[in-house]
Design a protein that fits this description.
The relative contact order is 0.19. This protein is 76% helix and 0% strand. It contains nine helices and no strands. By secondary structure, the chain is mostly helical. Helix 1 packs antiparallel against helix 5. The chain has one domain. It starts with a helix and ends in a 9-residue tail after the last helix.
Amino acid sequence: MLSRTADHLYWMARYTERAENLARLLDVSYQMSLVPQSVASRNENWRAILALNSLETAFAETYREVNVENVLRFMVSDPANPSSIFSCLRAARENAHAVRGTMTAEMWESVNATWIELRQQNFEHILARGVSEFFDWVKLRSAVTRGVTFGTMLKDDALHFIRLGGLLERGGQHRANSRHAISYPAPE
């Protein structure tokens, strides 16, 4: 297997896993922001999301205030943020496209359909439908892609690089999350 092919498969899986992990983190943070608490506490928890992803400076270049809507917009749909869900799913699709011949048709269709559906949604649409519904969609699309991948790919080097990318991203997120704990207040 060419190293370029392995690289694309590895990064496709990492970006898909990253989008799912981010959706999980943002969903929990959003649900917890609905618990009665001071505005300062709520915003501090959103600031922690930015710190967890080392994005404080990038965020400050575009947004003046750390609050729920600004952080969600930045982390969900901002194409200038390379760590946004939008950017991760775009990068996953670009990597998949580069090695389309190595993947099964079902796998390509799953990755491509995710990207096509995502492009049809803007942040206002996501807010109107409910951000938790969007996060569930991201988690579902990631699970579908993972299931199609493991169900249709040959058990060869290509699949090993896909697994490696996904598992390394998952391990890296677990480690980062344990270093930057977000404190959630008890309900009042």
